[in-house]
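Sequence and structure are kept together here, with a separate record for every protein. A complete record is shown below as an example:
=====
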Amino acid sequence: MTGSTSGPWGMGRSDSEGAAHHRYPNAHRPHEMQSAPCRRRANCRTCVNPKGTLLSTFIESARSRRLRWSVLLVLAGLLLLTACDSDGSEQPTATPTATTTATATATTNATDTTDPASQRMFHRTVMDARGIEVTFSVEPEAIAVLNLPALGDPLLTLGYEILAAPGASAVDQYRYLPEGALADTVDIGTSREIDLEALAAAAPELIIATDQNAEIYDQLDAIAPTYVVSTADIGTDRWTIIEQLADALGGEDELAAYRADYVARVAELRPHFDGHTLSFARLVPDALLTYHEHSPIGVVLEEIGFDVTEAEAGAGTPSGGENYIVELSAEQVGQLTGEYLIVYNQNLASDEARALLETDVWQAVPAVAAGRYVIIDTSETDFLLLPWGRYGTMHDLDVLEDLLVPLVQQ
């Protein structure tokens, strides 16, 4: 995207070519002060001493000139100081620029408290997942996200609202979010097929995309400045998304509060589960998967006290390229050796996959045989499995408490 951007901030070059040019107020220069011609008044030395010698007249005249120039220099300095003081120095009035490969800066007059943009000013420079350095000078308010499950909850956690997002009209899928959080959010298609016309019509000040949107970066940049979040570690680190957003947009206080609340909630649950082993399995359309301790849900379960079991090496093949998710065959379900078992029965599971739960092999699983297992059916219970913000994470902890505390206490 080239040319100037509309709105309070944009993307521009980090070098001098695209940087904001500061214009400083012109310093006031003292006016030339001319001595008045002699009008034979009483303060004229020559007039009051007409009989003075030529030498004495010359000396007095020289002294008078030196005195006048000394006074003039002092006055000039005072005038310069007064001019700088009254105008206020270094008040930039630059216009932001934007390109597809550079950084952005927008500035407003910080002394103008009546300007709404001046009340939104902050400054931070970050590198997005494309390797583009982005500088924020004004806090964006109209923000579109291109992946609602991954980006929506973290953005709300940091105190921002969502202007537009794919799938926003499917509010039943986001019941864990605060009531009304998506009431005014514009639906812009799906995460895999963004409705660019609807996105442009929403007029966002900022678009937050992921590296999965690489094919449409140019179109996004043409609509509004775009910050790209990396999903490289999204499967193993559920803090990575919100940390990137906090780094870019601010909200460090909100993130710290969320962490503190999470730690406190975990501390409440840990005494119930500490020292027990647990296996976690997930039914998908045509298979049964088991999650290890290094998966996002495995980390949560470990933090609340469980020792999450792992399938033995060679028990199955990694699913989706993730080495913490192992696909189990019907003969291998005996690898689920925990005292307790959670089965995440996704509503996409086929009848064949569900039939596995009726086999003799399944009934021989230790936790199943002892009646120490729960099935989380997503058609009946909201459970995110991969929460990335406050609301989804706290919701999942509530679900785990409701289902598992009675189980370990029986």
User: Anything to note?
Assistant: The domain at 140-250 is CATH 3.40.50.1980 (Rossmann fold). Residues 1-67, 81-113 have pLDDT under 50 and may be disordered.
